[in-house]
Amino acid sequence: KNEVEQSPQNLTAQEGEFITINCSYSVGISALHWLQQHPGGGIVSLFMLSSGKKKHGRLIATINIQEKHSSLHITASHPRDSAVYICAVWGGSNYKLTFGKGTLLTVNP
Amino acid sequence: DTGVSQNPRHKITKRGQNVTFRCDPISEHNRLYWYRQTLGQGPEFLTYFQNEAQLEKSRLLSDRFSAERPKGSFSTLEIQRTEQGDSAMYLCASSRKGSSSTDTQYFGPGTRLTVL
User: What is the dihedral sign for C-alpha A47, A52, A56, A57?
Assistant: First the structure.
């Protein structure tokens, strides 16, 4: 079983819809990252959080350390949000990220 | 553009050949990471440098793989005697050591390796 599980694996939405992507992890962590990967490989860090909630524009990330669960929300989704969203945690070693498999989001106009 | 560059962006090679990839991190970043990503999977940690010291290596990094960061700036990842199973995207990331070990990592665009 992967230490980091994301759901759903694939998500298709209509423009304007509210999107939620979930991440559960089984190890103790000191921080969790949400990353965005566009076709072609480039990865961009969206959030790093260790407690509570962070907001950046239309993106909101929450984490519940006790339940070992995080969510990424996208409000008023847009086709340019289409990408793979990856959850990654600092767990075990202090120096490596452990990644989920990613959630492929497609937002249709 | 995150400021981390990787070369080449694509590499096609025949099985058994050696390949070398280069990563140039953001200049003030002293931490550098290599990851490997296969299709449909998240990246997997390969190795980590703080300055020129290689502090951790994954068991995924077989003896055919070697990474260096000789002057604490750019890094190279070499794969000897490539196998078809080495086909993947190789990602480099860098970060700046701050007050914690969980500094934001900035990723390069990756080098896509195809072994025929």
Answer: positive
Q: Two tokens at A9? A: 């694996």
DSSP B81: S
Look at B43 and A4 and tell me if their CB atoms are within 8 Å: no
Tokens of residue A73, six digits:
């929300």
pLDDT truncated to tens, each residue of chain A (109 aa)?
568 999 999 999 999 999 999 999 987 788 899 999 988 768 998 998 989 999 999 999 999 999 999 999 999 999 999 999 999 998 655 567 889 999 999 999 9
Contacts of A95 in chain B (CB under 8 A): 31, 33, 48, 55-56, 101
In 3D space, the residue among B97, B100, B107 whose CA is nearest the CA of residue B25 turns out to be B107
Q: In angstroms, rounded to a whole number, what is the distance separating the alpha carbons of residues B104 and B114?
A: 29
- Interface-testing mutation among B50, B102, B106, B113, with chain A (most A C-beta atoms within 10 A): B102
Q: Look at B107 and A44 and tell me if their CB atoms are within 8 Å.
A: yes
